[in-house]
Amino acid sequence: MIPKEQSSILTQEVPKIKLPNQGLVGVKKSEPKKEIPTESTQLPQPTGWRILVLPFKMKEKTDGGVYLGQETVERQQVASQCGNVLAMGSECFQDKKRYPNGPWCKIGDWVVFARYAGSRIEIEGGEVRLLNEDEVLATIQDPKSILHKY
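^ that's the sequence the OP posted. Answer follows.
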């Protein structure tokens, strides 16, 4: 058995020692890491009534097994008349007189537009188009259902 004097010493709380500076001597504190730009932050953000669209890109290999050249795939993407809505400006489809039934499309929809509609902006890996809201002709479920020719 432990004597009474020793048991009271064991049950007492030991004060914690406070260290004055826990940083390393001669080492500067690191600054918070800067956000590395991702693909979505590098894309232009549409303003006003504009819509950012990524044109449909066909497969590099046909159903018959023929591999298409990179130039052919790029030409087809430039000539494409449908694309995926990536972003919309803050004023898109806000005019209740012009759009009484609400917006024609939303982010993530596949849309059809005229061949020469919008401004083409080159990005790494292809191009995007900046369309006005009224240049959207239709929405479609599957871009593969449209015959793509250039």
